[in-house]
Amino acid sequence: MYLLLDGEVAIFAKNAPIGTVRPGQIFGEMASIDQGPRSATAVAKSASRVITLDNRQLQTALGRKPEFALMLMSVMINRLRESIGRLGASETPLRSARRRESTPLRKDLLGDLVRLVGPGARFSYEAGSTIVREGQAGVLMYVVHRGRVAISVGGSPVETVGPGGIFGEMALVDRTPRLASAVAESDCELLAINRNVFLELVKHSRRFAASLLGAVSERARFMASR
Q1: How many Cα atoms within 13 Å fall on the side-chain side of residue 205?
Q2: CA–CA separation, 101 vs 21, rounded Å?
Q3: Does a structural domain hold residue 63?
Q4: With 0-12 CB in 10 A as exposed, 13-18 as middle and 19+ as buried, what is 171?
Q5: Which pLDDT tens digit goes with each residue over 168-216?
Q6: Could you report the per-residue pLDDT of 92-101, keeping only the tens digit for each?
Q7: Which residue among 96, 124, 125, 151 is buried most deeply as judged by most CB within 10 Å?
């Protein structure tokens, strides 16, 4: 991933310009976080200087500076919002039936979360129940303990979240309205995590921060590919 010190960098996806990076901003972070292929091309618009950060350095930074994880999440959430905005502005927004299966948390991390939040943070939903609604203010993120949850944007399905999967974290990072709706696809039990617990987890658990970054990165990459 790169931090731009001087100059301007244009970002292209599918040969179309999608943004400009200016000094103090980062780019290329998704490939560093999820080890996937580049989803966009970066071209210097003027003479530029950058600082590079490889995966080992990224992991070290997450351990030493937990707030770095929040900054990266915020950057990727903005990219995700931009992708959804472009799809919404197109003539055929989100018509593809393709949807992704969320990547679950590691079993040991999920077990730690179950013990940490306790029984008072477990909520059950019957199949067909709306859990969160697109456009609403968000005060909780969720981890699926049992069952499956369908995520949709603009009424179109984009993701299925199974046991160990997370959703709703974006509203806790930037405290903006929900980007998507979530409906119980089957009877399910969820762990609800408020912002205070969320911030403590990010600050004190590098594994949790890395898992969240991976989840947000995969969502941003998927939406950019639609």
Answers
A1: 18
A2: 31
A3: yes
A4: buried
A5: 988 888 888 898 999 999 999 999 999 888 888 888 888 888 888 888 8
A6: 555 555 678 8
A7: 151
The dihedral built from the CA positions of residue 77, 80, 82 and 88, taken in this order, carries a sign that is negative
What pLDDT score was predicted for residue 208?
86
* Cα distance between residue 87 and residue 214, in whole Å: 22
Same domain assignment for residues 83 and 108: no
- Cα end-to-end distance, the chain, whole Å: 23
| Domain boundaries, position 22 | 2-89
Q: Which amino acid is at 36?
A: G
* CATH code of the domain covering residue 77: 2.60.120.10
Q: 166 lies in a domain?
A: yes
**Residues 111 and 200 occupy one common structural domain:** yes
Q: Is residue 217 part of a domain?
A: no
CA distance linking residue 105 with residue 117, whole number of Å: 16
